[in-house]
């Protein structure tokens, strides 16, 4: 009878081990499924952020391009104001900008555009040179 009891105990031990192993496999399958869900969620989050950053970069690039075009339009307007014969000082006061800003636009005018506007702006420069502003061509007397 001791033999039967021993065999019975071995069978019971085996069943218990199999039950525990089955529970462990079930828990591992659940954990694996949850880990998959976790990784899928984090990948989706990263992809969402990357897409938002890409769209933001596109928006910023477009905004900078549009801003550059608007600045060019503003500078062209200043050139047209200079072509009317208004002084740099007068334009600067009207626009609430510095005279040096108006001068930089006038100096930065492309040569093709300048050739047509030279006749109109020559009078402006003459009137400024005869005034108290004292514009000196070529930076003579400066430390540059």
Task: Reconstruct the topology from this structure.
Blueprint: H1 2-83, H2 88-95, H3 99-107, H4 111-130
Helix pairs in contact: 2-3
Region (Disordered): 112-144
Biased composition (Low complexity): 116-144
Task: Characterise this structure.
This protein has 144 residues and is mainly α. The chain has a domain at 46-128. It has four helices and no strands. The chain has helices at 2-83, 88-95, 99-107, 111-130. Helix 2 packs across helix 3 (99-107). The longest helix has 82 residues, at 2-83. The chain is rod-shaped. The termini are far apart. Residues 119-144 have low confidence and may be disordered.
Descriptive key words:
single chain; mainly alpha; 83% helix; rod-shaped
Global mean pLDDT: 82
What structural class should be given to the helix and strand makeup?
A: mainly alpha
Shape: rod-shaped
In N-to-C order, the SSE pattern is HHHH
Estimated share of beta-strand residues: under 5%
Short recap of the structure:
By secondary structure, this protein is an all-alpha fold. It has helices at residues 2-83, 88-95, 99-107, 111-130. It has a domain at 46-128.
